[in-house]
């Protein structure tokens, strides 16, 4: 038979009995869907729209020369370990270097925590779901909260309770009322998840008083706290605030750290610092996922911390991002019409904008894109998707002049929407 004929026959056969791929997916897989906003934003990345939508660090901040030097050294001296499988808990010299670094920077005694390395904090979020969440368990998150955390936890079918935010972070007083109410109903919160410092998406930081109160509540109402701290080091103004983990004497805080925003996200190296008992369980859960975290990346991260490059590099990232943060806040001040509110982050990567009620930022996005600017509509950051008039703006990825121009275009878009109200 001719090749062409063969192919035609095969095609006919296939179309006669099309495979119903859907029937193969698990119930869980059927539930997960790509968000339409993400799809729209994907298109934006390739056009000349100024995108304030991203969540990426600026590649200019990647310490390429340092990484090059370290990589050569690692391959010359430690290739046997760097290219081999590692233990699930992580490369021990890195775990030790991180423990020392956290003790020095955050005043968290080495003796109080065990550290496990993970494939980015994202993996830790999934492990937390696996290890702690049974269907129906009550998990508290901030409103708004980190989108990828919602996605990671949701897979394990918790019941979410969301607590409002203000400029000082999570409204811990409202959390307390909620805890009391649940207690009366005989229910219990298992985990409170917080991005405590320069929150994604709002950019705000939980005050010290609230941190201390949250720890007290954890003890009083018997829950664990997951503190996600990817931005803690990126402070451009104001006074440093110790992590909640610093105030944790009982071992209730699971702290998540990552190299993604202070070295480079491509290595996929992060860490969990928590009570050894909790780490042990997470370690067992991780075994079946990936055996171990990227060993080569871990050895590079080890030298990066151990030789002091991290401490040297952080001020450089700050110097690079601060003018961008300033540019965004100045541009908002200059261009935004009255009645629009936004956060004034002292660090991190994002500003959160609140428009008057009645404006749906998801519907407004298309118009903004046609004017040459993109943002992330805030709705997806709320577990109950019940807030429509907010948006997240990123200031780390595009340069200052573009930020100004982007905010100007956005302000024009908003102004037109206001007229319609
Ligand atoms: C960027 C970010 C992370 C980092 O995730 P990795 O998997 O370590 O890259 C974690 N949490 C939040 C809130 C973030 O914004």
UniProtKB/TrEMBL annotation:
Keywords: Aminotransferase, Coiled coil, Pyridoxal phosphate, Transferase
Short name of one Pfam family: Aminotran_1_2
Domain of life of the organism encoding this protein: Archaea
Domain Aminotransferase class I/classII large: 51-410
UniProt cross-references to Gene3D superfamilies, sorted A to Z: Aspartate Aminotransferase, domain 1, Type I PLP-dependent aspartate aminotransferase-like (Major domain)
GO terms, biological process: alpha-amino acid metabolic process
Matching InterPro entries: Aminotransferase_I/II_large, Class-I_PLP-dep_aminotransf, PyrdxlP-dep_Trfase, PyrdxlP-dep_Trfase_major, PyrdxlP-dep_Trfase_small
Cofactor(s) the protein needs: pyridoxal 5'-phosphate
Protein name listed in UniProt: Aminotransferase
Phylogenetic lineage: Archaea, Methanobacteriati, Methanobacteriota, Thermococci, Thermococcales
Recorded coiled-coil stretches: 165-192
Annotated organism of origin: Thermococcus gorgonarius
Subunit and partners: Homodimer.
GO molecular function: pyridoxal phosphate binding; transaminase activity
Family as reported in the entry's similarity comment: Belongs to the class-I pyridoxal-phosphate-dependent aminotransferase family.
